[in-house]
């Protein structure tokens, strides 16, 4: 969604109605002209627009209460999107014009509609209308604050900030955020940059203490069947997120990813557009190719000129020999009860220090749980009979043996049926693991704090972190019939 033009209009009683601030976005207007073709209606000049808007809102010339273009019974207004009839060159109906008013101000904008002008699409289908109103409401809150009538000096000061505010929240006419109440922070205010020109995509400059934060997160997913006739599946997906608070128009930062000597090369690498240069061999390794051991194995250097906001520097996949936790899950049905047997083993290469580690065992399409006689060798077991769910909190460490077990039986004799799921019937059941391991990755990939290079006048504080987390980590009951396509569906 983009905005073709925006206006802030003052309507204090006893004073002339005036446009206090306006902004047109020529690049968006060019797109509007290309989309509309011969039906294009240009945004009129300020005086014409003001007169047309006041007429449509019934605020002009009180001696003429009836205006045919507005009050004729054939005209059907579609609030909150007004229609202004423009005369002269490029004449026609300018639609939609969004307006909101509160206290002394009227705020208006013309959003870009990425649809043919005729027939007009329903307002409910236009995301640009809701986003345009959100932008206007945010600007209104910024200008007026919590009350509806700020002092005149405060309003004048905030109106003076609007150029820098729009540069921050709506660069090139595309809203990214809504302005915060109060004055914008100093990094959002452009300052003199000497001979170096500030790029249009950068919404401001950082002023203050320099800091660079780099976070590496690897996510592991798996489908384990415990069945020799069906191959277990797993994959690892990594992301590197950066937030760089560095002075300068185009500061240079280099982040280097390193692998252990026996680590598998990273694959399917995607980088942010701000990366200035990259070795082509880094981008050629793909997980769909046959791995021949000759792929580029690092170190992976990413030089870039960062934006102000946090961003994803790169993402990758990695081939690892085994998942971090191997599981065995068996259910045996005896009359109206189930015998449960679970064994989980933490692989020796994984750091035995979790932020959390929980195993969820749901039982669908059965009566509500009655008697639950289940013992665990480590951790705590929480029983939710209403949800037919066992939650096994394994805590922050596996025992020294790195193995934990669960044994027991569950009787389903509750008065009401438990939750249902069309996928899991009879013995088709699974365990889902949730865990996070700080300060490690499964591939061994890391960002050395000393390898982060920042070319800036001020020495920044550099913070790096890494962690491993689970997502869609399933262990299916080996005595049931796990869905054949589940691996492709969930992975």
Automatic annotation (TrEMBL):
<dbReference type="InterPro" id="IPR036168">
    <property type="entry name" value="AP2_Mu_C_sf"/>
</dbReference>
<protein>
    <recommendedName>
        <fullName>AP-5 complex subunit mu-1</fullName>
    </recommendedName>
</protein>
<dbReference type="GO" id="GO:0005765">
    <property type="term" value="C:lysosomal membrane"/>
</dbReference>
<dbReference type="InterPro" id="IPR039591">
    <property type="entry name" value="AP5M1"/>
</dbReference>
<feature type="region of interest" description="Disordered">
    <location>
        <begin position="184"/>
        <end position="203"/>
    </location>
</feature>
<feature type="domain" description="MHD">
    <location>
        <begin position="209"/>
        <end position="476"/>
    </location>
</feature>
<keyword id="KW-0967">Endosome</keyword>
<dbReference type="GO" id="GO:0005829">
    <property type="term" value="C:cytosol"/>
</dbReference>
<keyword id="KW-0653">Protein transport</keyword>
<keyword id="KW-0813">Transport</keyword>
<dbReference type="GO" id="GO:0016197">
    <property type="term" value="P:endosomal transport"/>
</dbReference>
<comment type="similarity">
    <text>Belongs to the adaptor complexes medium subunit family.</text>
</comment>
<keyword id="KW-0472">Membrane</keyword>
<dbReference type="Pfam" id="PF00928">
    <property type="entry name" value="Adap_comp_sub"/>
</dbReference>
<keyword id="KW-0458">Lysosome</keyword>
<dbReference type="GO" id="GO:0015031">
    <property type="term" value="P:protein transport"/>
</dbReference>
<dbReference type="GO" id="GO:0031902">
    <property type="term" value="C:late endosome membrane"/>
</dbReference>
<keyword id="KW-0963">Cytoplasm</keyword>
<dbReference type="GO" id="GO:0030119">
    <property type="term" value="C:AP-type membrane coat adaptor complex"/>
</dbReference>
<comment type="subunit">
    <text>Probably part of the adaptor protein complex 5 (AP-5) a tetramer composed of AP5B1, AP5M1, AP5S1 and AP5Z1.</text>
</comment>
<feature type="compositionally biased region" description="Polar residues">
    <location>
        <begin position="188"/>
        <end position="198"/>
    </location>
</feature>
<dbReference type="InterPro" id="IPR028565">
    <property type="entry name" value="MHD"/>
</dbReference>
